[in-house]
């Protein structure tokens, strides 16, 4: 066989390399085309799924959406707790804690298993039990909860020393409950009813949500009057009705929008002048709370704008109108005039005829939103309005007395402990109110129960320690409970209280209620209560 020359070898190699490159280019081209085809198909499928999820999310009831959001936040919180726990449990070496490796070395060969046949690994429960879920899974090793609840003895070791703080006053009622089991895990006179201050708003909200449902809205209407040119502004009991400009889709009922709709309807009926009356007959009994005129609460009437506030505030103490209904009607008359409707004279109080034709109306935000606002900012006007709405639903007079009776009846229907309980108002401003820590803790357990989704806004409306509402300025930057404790506050002279929820160091969701009477240092009492709530967040307490 003749020997191949060098140039022939180079030519042959060049030919083979060229053919290889062409084959590689063809394969690469086919691969890219196939990749683009698959990617396009995947993107189209992803867009279809995303659109379907968005549609289903928009169609999901508001309360279920809030529940999912709360569960997602809880899960994220639990993940952070787990990561921090893993880091603190170190140091680590090769995926194993060095302390465990040292113990294994003492007992036998490092890294090997000793002591019998293989067993299935214990199941791990979620770090944070979601609201309304079934109890945590059982461990196959012990038969107990994989995330064990705190024990009474463990909680006593943690809380009893804190309860000795003299800043807490002479009377205390304390209850801590495990949400997963619904059982009380610590109590100190938990069934003793004492003055709760604003934490009673939890009971008011529970009664209203149970009686009316979270989607209920309160209507403010303009109806036809007795004469052809008479109209009546009818108060429906919406304390959040506003005369201010509103933005977005989810806003309080607005007098301006009611004036717009009324002006359009009246212009179709013909020229005025029109006479405007206003109807506050929905409520009965005294308008003033027993505390008298006060910057914390307007006269309780079913027609008011911006809670009768005489400044630009939207929560907290403020100068109040003496006659919020007359003021709201006067503002509404001016709005009609600004829209080209001639209104004769000043508005007069009167009563609309039964079954009068509706000219225009606006509705409040859902009741769940009103409850959240009431709890976050401790809004007394909303609390008294919700007490009366509960009374109307029960067929009771819409008064202080009727509201108290209806709220108590509704709490009884929820099978809550009412021993020694006396409810005198909806806001907690009345010192005749008496409830126990056990009652308030049970209210929060019901709110987390999957059988009572209508109560969920009692949890979502709780202020967040160090961030929102009445807890925004409490809990220092480095406080353990900051961002973890969520609780309703209560404060009167000599009365301090705190009731809410917290995730403990093991990821267990607990609810608590701390009530104290006879305090002489409000700031010291608040700090003592905050330390008690933080103590729950900082321990597994077993």
From TrEMBL:
Keywords: Carboxypeptidase, Hydrolase, Membrane, Protease, Transmembrane, Transmembrane helix. Residues 95-158, 305-326 are annotated as: Disordered. Residues 95-117, 306-323 have a biased composition (Basic and acidic residues). It comes from Streptomyces asiaticus subsp. ignotus. Pfam families: Peptidase_S13. Its EC number is 3.4.16.4. One of its GO terms (molecular function) is serine-type D-Ala-D-Ala carboxypeptidase activity. Belongs to the peptidase S13 family. InterPro entries: Beta-lactam/transpept-like, Peptidase_S13. Residues 121-131 have a biased composition (Low complexity). SUPFAM superfamilies: beta-lactamase/transpeptidase-like. The chain crosses the membrane at residues 68-92. The keyword Isomerase does not apply. This is D-alanyl-D-alanine carboxypeptidase/D-alanyl-D-alanine-endopeptidase. It comes from the Bacteria.
